[in-house]
Structures are given as structure tokens and as C-alpha cells.
Amino acid sequence: MELGNQALVLPALKRFARATHEGHAAESIWCELERTLTDVFGQRLFTVLAYDEASNRLGRLHSNRPDINPVGGMKRVTHSRWTEQVLRRGEIFLGSTREAIKAVFSEYEVLWSIGCESVLNIPVRKGSITLGTLNLLGEAGLYDGADVDLALVFAQLAVTTLEASVRKLQQFGEPDRMEQV
């Protein structure tokens, strides 16, 4: 991994694993994950989305910028290259440029305005089922050379917490308004 300080990786993993092991509340775990991923990968915007395949919805569970991406926001999933890659096949999506952001996010101008010109979307999976995504956005090229295998380690540590959140998402009815993804 070329990003960040290698000396931070193991302590960051240990911190996040301890938070999940001790059964902290979901929001506390997401905050710890945010801190951990910032130490290892860096980002300006970090969100966690739960995915309910049955209803074809994504629900925002955590955001470090609620002024831009509020918690509780819902997105209707539409057919796209990103959907196939990340949600269906469970593969990481890495975009390095403004053009990549524009191709994937309808709110690309807002993202550009806060300096987000690259993205690392990490699917969180249990077996072959995608439970959600961890989404890191930062300056152009930030994730070029990122250790995607390490990103998947963090995603796997988030499985239990995200799985519980997906169950909650499934209990909600259809919201009045949804974004498109």
C-alpha cells in the first residue's frame, strides 16, 4: 500500500476489531471505522450504505458530512455498471478522476465542490450477498495504488454490524422520497 503510514495499519485494524468485538453501538462502530479508514486510506467524505436487495434500496447509515449526505437518506438502486460491479458481483470500484465521479454519482457537482474527485467503494459481503458499501471519497488519484485487499479486511470486520442494519432497513416501509444511484 502506497497510501498513509504503514505503521498505522496494524493499530488501526486492532482498534476497529476491538470496537466490533466489544459490541459497541452501531454508530460508535461506524465512527471508529471512519477514524480507522482515515488513518489508513484518507478521505474527505465517508459514508456507509446498507443494501436491501429485495427492495432494491440503499440506506445511509453513517456520514461524516451530514450536510451533504445525511444519515437516513435512501436511494433506489437502478441498473448501472456500478450496480453490477459493486452490489451484484461484490467487486471494489475505484475511480480516480472527476470523470469517474460524474459517471457514477448524480450529485457529482456537490462532491467536486468539497474536493472529492476520486472514490473507493468497498462492498461489504457475507458469502455471496452484498450487505452494503463503505464509501471513501477524496482528491483526484487518492486511491491509485490503494491496497484493495486491505480494504476488504475492513469490510469483513464490518459484516456483523452492517448485517444488523440491513435487517432494520428491511423493516422500514417505502420512504416518501428517494435519491437514485
TrEMBL record:
This is GAF domain-containing protein. It comes from Trinickia violacea.
